[in-house]
Structure formats: C-alpha cells, structure tokens
Amino acid sequence: GTLSGGERQMLALGRALMARPKLLMLDEPSLGLAPLVVREVLRAILELRAAGVSILLVEQNARAALQVADYGYVLETGETVLEGSAAELLANPRVVETYLGLARA
Length: 105
Prior knowledge:
Blueprint lengths: L4 H13 L5 E5 L7 H16 L3 E5 L3 H7 L2 E6 L2 E7 H6 L1 H6 L7
Parallel strand pairs: 1-2
Antiparallel strand pairs: 3-4
Helix pairs in contact: 2-3
C-alpha cells in the first residue's frame, strides 16, 4: 500500500531514531501535512526533546516551531533578523504580526 505524507514523515523519524542519535536535524517536518498530522509530528518532537535528544529544526511554520523550540532564529532572505528564546520570540510584536499572522490585543 501507499503511505500518506504523515505516515512517511513518521516513518522517516522512526528510521532516524533507530541509530539513537544525540542530535536530530529536521528540515520542514510539517511541510504538506494535514493539521492533525502536524500535531502528531510536533508531539513526537516534544517526546524526543524530553528524552534528551537535541533537535535542530528548520521550519516555515513559525507557530509550530516556537511551540517545540527552546531557542529560535528568524531568517529573512538568508539573513538572521531576530533571535531569542521561544518565549521571547512569541512575545515579540514583530514576530506575532509578521510571522504568526495575528494582531496583538
């Protein structure tokens, strides 16, 4: 049978974990996935983090990335324009308005 995009992503994570890495590099793990599957991928990332695996995450979904990150960098045209803890970036009005698509209340 054919695996869905989410199933392929989870299989790729599982294969990577077979080597018991200390560092896991993920490039756009939520790309093209349904919202429910994105939540499952993020849950898996949080579990890995809790198990002591360091994770380098490249993700265009800023909200998802900041939900699982300790620290983040915001890039524009290849240049770092902002950096800070996930909490700092989530509280930054520029990040909220430009990258999260929400107006601050």
